[in-house]
Amino acid sequence: MRSEYGVAEATSSRALDLFTDLGDRRGQATALHSLGHVQYARGEYGVAEATSSRALDLFTDLGDRYGQANALHSLGHVQYARGEYGVAEATLTRALDLFTDLGDRHGQANGHLYLGITQRLQGAHEPATTNLTKALALLGEVGDHDGEAETYNALGELALAHPDAGDPHTHFTTALTLARDTGSRLHEANALAGQGRCLQHTDPARATTLLHQALTLHRELDVPEATRTAALLDTLQRDYPTASKPPESSAPLHDLPDSRPPRHL
Question: What CA–CA distance (Å, rounded) separates 252 from 211?
Fold first, then answer.
């Protein structure tokens, strides 16, 4: 996936140059926002943070609150990806406040989603549960099933450490169904990896199968998640060597038994 963004980055850079030559500041801001998104998708987080900050400054100078909200949300994404969770939480909160003032329910949904993910990573489980639950409700209202898949995966991750967030197996299974319905291979891969984590201690052979499937998709998509999935699979195969070769076939994921693993993987 990351390797496919070279052309998009070049195109956004050309657009930025043209808007700059024309003195079109709104065009520059929009091109910078697009360029930052592409750089983020390619994993160029340091450059993406600088680009998104420039877009934010321009949208702010122009008084474009909708542009500001989107730029803040993108900047929060980058800060989250860089592990700057406290800074990202503050940035995403600003974006959410703007989306709320503007009445943009889709923007609010995404704001709650990534705010919840960032809070989970800081161990703030209760507010994370609240934000992810709000995101799920809003995404359902606007009919964004792809966003719902991402949110169920996030809830699954949260529930592995915080049982009050629900059953992780159920969350990951729902995410898998939605991801396959919408054709989102990334969310499908993440759901498969989540299911594997749920079963790593109760059914390591099945968990191995699921993690192999997830790793195949992650590598095909060329996404950072491949590194984590490979590490999970290596750990599982080391702890349960007899489960290192997955069976040729396995039961449907919906038929897998419920389980709750230890709080830390």
Answer: 15
Rounded to 5°, the CA angle 137-141-147 comes to 70
Q: Tell me which residue of 222, 223, 195, 190 sits closest to 209, measured CA to CA.
A: 195
Helices (H) and strands (E) in the chain, counts: 12, 0
Digit-coded pLDDT (tens) for 197-248 = 999 999 999 999 999 999 999 999 988 899 999 999 999 999 998 876 554 4
Dihedral pair phi/psi, residue 83, rounded to 5°: 85, 10
CA angle 60, 64, 70 (to 5 degrees): 85
CA 63, 68, 71, 72 torsion-angle sign = positive
- For the stretch 126-132, contacts whose Cβ atoms lie closer than 8 Å and that sit 24 or more positions apart, written own/partner, are 126/164, 128/158, 128/162, 128/165, 129/158, 129/162, 129/164, 129/165, 132/158, 132/165
Band of residue 3 on the pLDDT scale cut at 50, 70, 90: low
- Rounded Cα gap, residues 157 and 226, in angstroms: 16
pLDDT value of residue 261: 28
Q: What distance in Å separates the CA atoms of residue 142 and residue 149, rounded to the nearest whole number? A: 14
Cα first-last separation, the chain: 27
Enter the tokens of residue 180: 């396959």
Evaluate if pTM is beyond 0.90.
no
Per-state percent for the chain, helix, strand, coil, to nearest 5: 80, 0, 20
Per-residue burial over 79-110, b if 16 or more Cβ lie within 10 Å, else e, is: bbeeebbebbbebbebbbebbeeeebeebbbb
